[in-house]
Amino acid sequence: SDSLSTDVVKAFVVYTETLLSKSPDPRSPKTSQFVDLTGVSIKQGLQPGVLKKLYATFEPNYPETLEKMVLYPVPRIMVRAVNAMLSFVNEHTRKKFIITDDLFLVCKELGWNLKEIETCGSVNSYMKKHLQHGLSFVFD
User: Fold this and answer.
1) CB 100 within 8 A of CB 106
2) Are 117 and 126 in contact (CB under 8 A)?
3) What pTM does this model have?
4) How far is residue 42's CA from residue 111's CA, in Å, rounded to a whole number?
5) Residues 23-72: pLDDT tens digits?
6) Partners of 34 in the beta sheet?
7) Helical H runs in 1-137?
8) CA-to-CA distance for 109 and 95, rounded, in angstroms?
9) DSSP annotation string for 31-68
10) How many CB atoms sit inside 10 A of residue 16's CB?
């Protein structure tokens, strides 16, 4: 729905503004964003309308601030469908998306410790343990 799209965009804007305000280099801020899709079906969580609205907001207003966005876990069988949903994203930005079901790749891309995630029991528990910006930025 349109109100869902608007709410999602607003949440990403607030989150991004908070991250950018804490950037060590305010002249060239970068963000890496992790979207935990555990338990979310493609139909529920990655609606093309929401993705298009996010892109329409971020591309003109936050150019070059996204270093990477990791979507995890996306089953291998669904990666092609997710890539098709992102076909409207320009190639330069598209290369910043990591869409995977491979936790090792997530750890490599984000500099996370795989053994520690396993010890914590889940990515969500690991993220909560390493919070830098408060619990309001971990959405269950």
Assistant:
1) yes
2) yes
3) 0.80
4) 26
5) 888 788 888 888 888 877 656 656 777 778 888 888 888 878 889 989 89
6) 70
7) 2-21, 42-45, 48-61, 76-85, 91-94, 103-110, 114-120, 123-129
8) 13
9) EEEEEE-TT--HHHH--HHHHHHHHHHHHHHSTTTEEE
10) 19
Residue type, 6: T
Angle separating helix axes 48-61 and 2-21, nearest 10 degrees? 40
Range 120-123, long-range pairs (CB < 8 A, 24+ positions): 122/38, 123/34, 123/36, 123/38, 123/72
What is the overall mean pLDDT for the chain?
Answer: 83
- Structural Rg of the chain based on CA atoms: 15
Residues 6+ apart with CB under 8 A from 43: none
The identity of residue 62, as a single letter, is Y
Residue type for position 131:
L
Kindly list the distances between the CA atom of residue 22 and the CA atoms of 2, 3, 58, 110, 127, in Å, as whole numbers in the listed order.
31, 29, 18, 18, 18
78 closest CA partner among 113, 117, 44: 44
Give the per-residue pLDDT at 42: 58
